[in-house]
Give the backbone structure.
Amino acid sequence: MSIKTPQEIELMREGGKRVAIVMKELSAEVKPGVTPKSISAMAADKFKKAGLQAILLGYEGFSDVICVSVNEAIVHGLPSGKPFKDGDVVKLDLTVAYKGMVVDHAATFVVGSPQSTSIKRLVEGTQKSLYAAIDAISGEGTRVGDISAAAQKVMDDHKLGIIRDLVGHGVGHSIHEDPHIPNYGVAGTGPVLHAGDTVAIEPMASLGDWHIKTAPDQWTIEMADGSIGAHFEHTVLITEKSAEILTQI
């Protein structure tokens, strides 16, 4: 990981705001009868109009502009033509560049009617774990374990399966930079973060076990036990005394 310059941070800040607007607009289209493919087409159009580059397209062979993961699919979902149905749990993951600087943002949405108690627990618990992890950042000198432990506590409190083989990461000059940021760990341990570092914090959890598998499309990552999963992600700037969420309006 490299500390970002003030100019690079400003580009990431602007890119983050733009992708957050796109996420808000796309979320309104996640409804019964709409397909993941149509959501990705909307995203491509909105990225272009916002001056954002869809850097997932072609990344290690990925053939679309965003990831759309449904129900037991937890991340890296290759958008399909299967329409959303009432009650589906949909994860949108948007990774873009703005004038060369990369930001990463993901959120989970429930299609249609009010979700069951367990789905509500899953989505709310995973989202709360994201903000608890961000709140655990005390600026210069924060250790990765501080973030990991905070995320884990909330997910444990909500009795969720914490995905262990997928992690958050540094981001900015490329999609994936050091360090890895697991969603479980021990406070006071791990790599030290410095003011000017930018990281993607992304809790991922399920209603079942934590083990995962790769789907037949060779991209989509699914829960091995078929349980429903949730995923939230913000790109965050480490400041001198705290953190700034870059991927928000």
In short: The longest helix spans residues 6-27. Helices lie at 6-27, 36-50, 117-135, 144-157. The mean pLDDT is 97.
